[in-house]
């Protein structure tokens, strides 16, 4: 699905044929599929309205108007039949049921980066709350929205919460001004508290491994720390230096290559596709000789949100690799071997990394750098692919299909689908 101002366009993912065209009341600011792909939510925050469309019954429609309370966020519950709307100033979360048309209210939600978290099986929801100048977490049962547990957290200013994939442990971390991460059980017991250091900027990003055995914490000191699920103690610390000297690490460096054009294809005037391919810079990967010096940027520490520390990290679906990005070295992606707890590969790009994401089915990483190329890495090697489109197509983010057979590449104004052929076994 994609939106063009107030129009919602639903296409077939394999053919790009338009299946449905819906017209909303105002410019769409957020769209989200229900978990079973039968409904799609369109939020118009400026108007305080959410419209829901049905793929099975195009004539059926639903409009939710928050009125004077306003709207700042909207999302689906895991069952795909309830919508959670957060009102302006985070006064409350309203839970709307599409089945019974009933409404439930959750008071005092906290305005933080990640204030709502669902378990992977969809049974429980945790909500970060702020009341009487203290942080709390409430855990609800998603089947009937009854409160299961309510407890205060030992945080100065709770910044985010996230469940482990197995739904047994909830991680809650403090603002970047204080390095503190707390781990709670489903019944609200504090299992462990981890602090790496004090009196300096702290946690910037976290990621659970798919097996729930490891918790990776990226921080402003340019390091990733791995905690284990048995003792919640640190078992590894990954540094991101500007110089790589270990001969066992492979560094792939992106370099320019001039496109080869056969003489029989040359014509005057050149065709549009030939002209665009002639003048677009193509690239390939070379393996660098050790030691390798990466481009390091010294951040402006006197400004808010300095570009420093581990801003992105993600585990591969098979639990074998961890990809990280150090914002001080914006052109590099670091890939760590989790079985050996060592650096495995570094990809050094010509431009700054905009986004990366693992294939949901296998250890294959896709990344983009704001140009018209998509880059793929797997343990077999890496490749640079030019997107065959006319004009300026700068990829700023990408998203894998759940099958791993295709991915959506998004620029500021356009998108295209990239299809990957499966290898015959």
TrEMBL record:
Spans traversing the lipid bilayer: none
Cellular component per GO, a single term: microtubule organizing center
Top-level taxon of origin: Eukaryota
Annotated PANTHER family: WD REPEAT PROTEIN 8-RELATED, WD REPEAT-CONTAINING PROTEIN WRAP73
Protein name: WD repeat-containing protein WRAP73
């Amino acid at each position: 699905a994609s939106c063009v101002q107030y129009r919602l366009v639903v296409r077939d993912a394999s053919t790009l044929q338009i299946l449905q065209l819906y017209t909303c009341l105002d410019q769409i600011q957020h769209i989200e599929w229900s978990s079973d792909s039968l409904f799609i939510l369109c939020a118009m925050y400026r108007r305080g309205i959410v419209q829901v469309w049905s793929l099975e019954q195009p004539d059926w429609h639903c409009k939710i108007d928050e009125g004077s309370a306003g709207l700042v966020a909207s999302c689906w519950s895991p069952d795909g039949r309830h919508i959670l709307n957060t009102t302006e100033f985070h006064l409350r979360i309203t839970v709307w049921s599409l089945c019974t048309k009933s409404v439930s209210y959750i008071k005092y939600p906290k305005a933080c980066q990640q204030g709502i978290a669902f378990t992977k099986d969809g049974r429980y929801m945790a909500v970060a709350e702020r009341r009487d100048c203290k942080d709390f977490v409430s855990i609800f049962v998603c089947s009937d929205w009854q409160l299961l547990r309510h407890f205060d957290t030992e945080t100065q200013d709770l910044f985010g919460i996230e469940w482990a994939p197995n739904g047994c442990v909830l991680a809650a971390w403090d603002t970047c001004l204080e390095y503190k991460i707390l781990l709670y059980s489903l019944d609200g017991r504090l299992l462990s508290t981890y602090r790496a250091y004090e009196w300096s900027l702290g946690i910037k990003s976290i990621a659970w491994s798919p097996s729930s055995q490891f918790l990776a914490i990226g921080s402003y000191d340019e390091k990733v720390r791995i905690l284990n699920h048995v003792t919640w103690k640190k078992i590894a610390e990954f540094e991101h230096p500007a110089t790589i000297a270990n001969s066992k690490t492979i560094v792939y460096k992106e370099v320019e290559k001039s496109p080869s054009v056969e003489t029989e294809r040359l014509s005057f005037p050149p065709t549009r596709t030939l002209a665009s391919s002639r003048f677009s810079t193509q690239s390939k990967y070379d393996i660098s000789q050790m030691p390798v010096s990466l481009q390091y940027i010294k951040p402006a520490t006197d400004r808010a949100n300095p570009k420093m520390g581990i801003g992105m990290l993600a585990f591969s679906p098979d639990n074998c690799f961890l990809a990280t990005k150090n914002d001080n070295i914006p052109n590099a992606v670091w890939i760590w071997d989790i079985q050996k707890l060592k650096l495995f590969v570094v990809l050094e790009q010509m431009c700054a990394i905009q986004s990366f994401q693992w294939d949901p089915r296998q250890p294959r990483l896709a990344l983009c750098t704001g140009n018209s190329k998509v880059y793929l890495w797997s343990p077999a090697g890496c490749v640079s692919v030019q997107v065959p489109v006319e004009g300026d197509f700068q990829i700023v983010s990408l998203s894998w299909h759940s099958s791993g057979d295709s991915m959506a590449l998004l620029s500021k104004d356009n998108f295209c689908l990239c299809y990957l052929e499966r290898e015959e076994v």
